Write a sequence for this structure.
């Protein structure tokens, strides 16, 4: 491999070919710190042309490629295996915003751009890029596109796929395919853009994208409501959508135990109520008219919900600081659970109308599998995406609990399947769920996926061992 690495140095510069353990360590361990792979080298190209040159070299030498953005994924999709045969291709140097077109409401960005920087650039142009998730300060748009990330705004704006109009991709052969045209209508054959979005780097490497922008809302209003069951939350969702329509941009469900963990590990963050309630919903309206109009809509929804006994209490933010404080209750849940100890995560989607029944039924099944375990249930109720996480019983060692992971996963995933859901809503499959999906995808779907993989990546060099 000496000749290969020397050719890489010539292609992108010796300073961007990392082989020393001290230089590569930060790229090879997954975000949760549970797995560390090995790599022949970490390569950091700075342009699309350099990415293409590296891919051509890898194709010539039959070297597998693991693309990586911010390495914030949760399913081992952006780290290599333990063989040490692959190179890790970090796209963090491809971080330019190439163009902003406020009239066309588009922004052209490179794959290594941090999501938060894209949001800020849009705001500077008096536009909104609505993709928002907890890792937005470190995740990259290339990773968001490769996993079709969701986040808190899916209810109004859709997943990342819906926010992308075109992509630039380096194929497995090292060719550059560009559809960076910013068109909302282009009915000229197969939709190649959507083939690469959500493919987790297994078909090609996304190097740039044209993103949709939106007018900035004139007002955003946030409220936290307390209620008894997820079924009450579903009725509240229906009420809010009826009253507010597309202005309803956030609808997040959280169990009481979620906020107990946040209060425990991140004081003084706590629910603004005098007593605990079984469940909470965080709602947000984004209004194009005025703050007064948004507040009027919100107050009507909250008032009706109280009258119909859908909610037991409510707190409406009256300032930006209060709104941020309410959102922090939601955003700190995952970190609080991590501070509590090892846990078993499930990123699932269920038909929205069946979420209440799913939680009731599956909570019982999980308790039968792991008596005394504590459920950390939260997520984007408006689009059916639950983070249905499990923490160990009190006084049970982390290692003993993690040994139950396969059994708990099977219990949850079989229940998801029975309810017509998906075992991966927004995190992807990576290596973590590659075998698990065989139980739930039909043979026809799997054959078609394998056929696409074989056609586009016949030597299986693109992120091998992931998805398929």
């Amino acid at each position: 491999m000496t000749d290969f690495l020397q050719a890489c140095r010539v292609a992108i510069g010796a300073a961007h070919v990392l082989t020393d353990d001290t230089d590569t360590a930060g790229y090879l361990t997954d975000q949760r710190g549970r797995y560390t792979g090995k790599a022949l080298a970490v390569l950091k190209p700075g342009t699309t042309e350099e990415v293409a040159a590296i891919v051509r070299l890898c194709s010539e030498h039959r070297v597998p490629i693991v693309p990586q953005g911010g390495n914030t994924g949760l399913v081992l999709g952006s780290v290599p295996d333990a063989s040490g045969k692959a190179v890790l291709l970090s796209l963090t140097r491809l971080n330019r915003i190439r163009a902003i077109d406020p009239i066309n409401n588009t922004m052209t960005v490179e794959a290594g751009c941090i999501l938060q920087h894209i949001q800020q650039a849009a705001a500077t142009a008096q536009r909104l890029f609505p993709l928002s998730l907890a890792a937005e300060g470190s995740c990259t748009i290339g990773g968001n596109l490769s996993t079709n990330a969701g986040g808190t705004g899916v209810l109004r704006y859709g997943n990342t796929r819906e926010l992308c109009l075109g992509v630039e991709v380096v194929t497995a052969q090292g060719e550059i395919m560009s559809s960076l045209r910013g068109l909302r209508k282009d009915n000229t054959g197969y939709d190649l853009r959507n083939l690469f979005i959500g493919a987790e780097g297994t078909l090609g490497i996304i190097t740039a994208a044209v993103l949709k922008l939106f007018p900035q809302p004139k007002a955003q209003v946030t409220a936290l409501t307390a209620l008894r069951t997820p079924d009450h939350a579903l009725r509240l969702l229906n009420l809010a959508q009826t009253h507010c329509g597309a202005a309803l941009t956030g609808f997040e469900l959280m169990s009481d135990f979620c906020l107990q963990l946040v209060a425990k590990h991140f004081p003084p963050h706590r629910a603004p109520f005098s007593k605990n309630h079984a469940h909470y919903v965080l709602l947000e309206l984004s209004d194009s008219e005025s703050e007064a109009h948004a507040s009027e809509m919100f107050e009507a929804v909250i008032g009706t919900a109280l009258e119909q006994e859908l909610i037991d209490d409510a707190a409406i933010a009256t300032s930006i600081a209060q709104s941020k404080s309410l959102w922090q209750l939601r955003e700190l849940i995952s970190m609080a659970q991590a501070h509590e100890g090892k846990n078993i995560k499930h990123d699932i989607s269920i038909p929205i109308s069946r979420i209440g029944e799913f939680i009731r039924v599956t909570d019982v099944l999980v308790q039968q599998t792991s008596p005394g375990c504590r459920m950390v249930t939260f997520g984007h109720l408006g689009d059916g995406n639950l983070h249905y996480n499990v923490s160990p019983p009190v006084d049970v060692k982390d290692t003993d609990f993690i040994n139950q992971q396969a059994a708990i996963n099977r219990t949850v995933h079989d229940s998801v399947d029975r309810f017509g859901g998906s075992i991966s809503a927004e995190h992807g499959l990576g290596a973590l769920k590659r075998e698990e999906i065989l139980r739930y995808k039909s043979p026809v779907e799997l054959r078609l996926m394998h056929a696409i993989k074989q056609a586009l990546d016949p030597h299986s060099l693109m992120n091998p061992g992931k998805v398929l």
Notes: The chain is about 35% helix and 20% strand. The longest helix spans residues 291-307.
